[in-house]
Amino acid sequence: MKKNRKWIVLFLLPGILLFSFIFLATLVILFGSSFTDWTIGKELSFVGLKNYINIFTEDAGFITAIKNTFIWILLQSTVHVVIGVTVALMLSRKRWYSNAVRTIFFIPNVISSAALGMLFLCTMNPQYGLLNQLISKITGEPCTTNWFLGSNSAFWTVTMTWLPYAGLVTILVMAEMSSISEDVYEAAKIDGATPLQTDFHIVLPLMRNIIGTCVVLAATSMLQKLDIIMMTTSGGPGNKTMNLPMYVYETVFTYKKFGKANAEGIVLIAVGIICLKVIRKAFKMDEED
Amino acid sequence: MKYLGKLFVGIFLSIIVIISLVPFLWVFASSFRTNGEILSGGFGFAHGLYVQNYSTAFKLAPLVAFYKNSIIVAILATVFNIAVCTMAAYVVVRCSFKAKGLITAMFSVGLIIPSAALIQPLYNTMMNTGLYNTLTALILVYTALGMPTTFYIMVSYIRTIPYTLEEAAYIDGSGFVRTFATIVLPLTRPAFATAGVIQFLLAWNEFQLALTLTGDTSKRTLPIALYYFKSAFASDYGAMFAATVVVVVPSIIVFILLQKQVISGLAAGSVKG
Questions:
Q1: What are chain B's domains?
Q2: How high is the ipTM of this complex?
């Protein structure tokens, strides 16, 4: 272990400066201004907890945004992760197509979400979209459902742009599975366990930590979903697909209520921390580290 | 029973492949169809491959400029991110000093802050420092956003390098920086690839901060270009499909070529999630 104060400081300095500029300064502004009525063209004044009380008691849009965000967090941390883990288990038996399927499944995760939003906007287009064309061909009747703008279909259409695309979960779980020794599978086979029993009683319990990590990633990714929503519905129709990031964005750029937007930002961060704590507890992830 | 299981696996995986691939293939195929063909539906190419969509797309939107911006931002954000994180990771692993826990916490903060929460404060900071609507702003922000992942990849990689090599260098009279540059950096190269590809994809794909921290066409990156030109393309579907393909293809190529690095980077970076 070297002790060389000058070099330690110099090596850490770029990171410290960057952190201070991008995270520390912004977090201070975020927290401080959440107690003010900061907006454009007006003297800023301290309003105490007014913004927080306002968003939770008088702002129907914010309540809808929170509700939708929670539904999406719940769906993503369950259905999405189950899909990803199921695919990982299916591909783990090294079949000829395993690598190809894994690669293909990850493609929707690797492209820009904005582009993914565009892909879906085209695929679901009421006039020329692939989905309606297929439905028309199968039923023989012209189908012109407007998936993204129909007030009944919008929420689920948006949900389907991320819920099934669990390629990241599959990749992470498979990477972890590769560390299980062949002997374990061999021993299970000798003991007469079927592949399904091996998966459920041996493989899955060994995957607890990485599945917990996947649940954390899946849940917190729902606090980042601005891109796809902006590309497709902008939160509409009538707040049906409004989530927290989109609501913060609107409060800043449409309504210019910066103090209020930053109170919403604090709530967004708090939701993230609560998710992290709850999930880590549920998966007992702190015990082994 | 065994066959039933196989059937289920087959059907499930087929659905997975179809939903992942078909929208993309359809948009790709449609980017070579005329507007008329797209609107009338069907899946053929009655007019042959209509490549004019691509030239129209490049005419409707300054895609070349967006490409240039995206490449500059992604490359510089990757280089800076790796430089900053490797230096910090090295001293955190090899040196003993009091604030180690604090430094680690500092590099991890990004993990628990959804960037949507920072939209207004970052916008304000960039406005006040004159960095609003510059590529520099995006480069700095992406360098910072990737700090947690790259830092963890670097810390865990440097831990695997035996200290004896550096010790020998010190005994031979090599200084701190020289040991770092000539002994440690060459050995860390595999981790650069791993962290670099993840960081590159982050910067290449990022949308929400690119949208809020830039103001005019000359400073936009590819993902927001799609957003702004959604309306410009509104009547020219073929060009819109072509523009989407142009944006999507680089990420897919990077992923397929560097799959091994992407996978190990994701695995290493997620551990502390």
A1: 53-270 (1.10.3720.10)
A2: 0.90
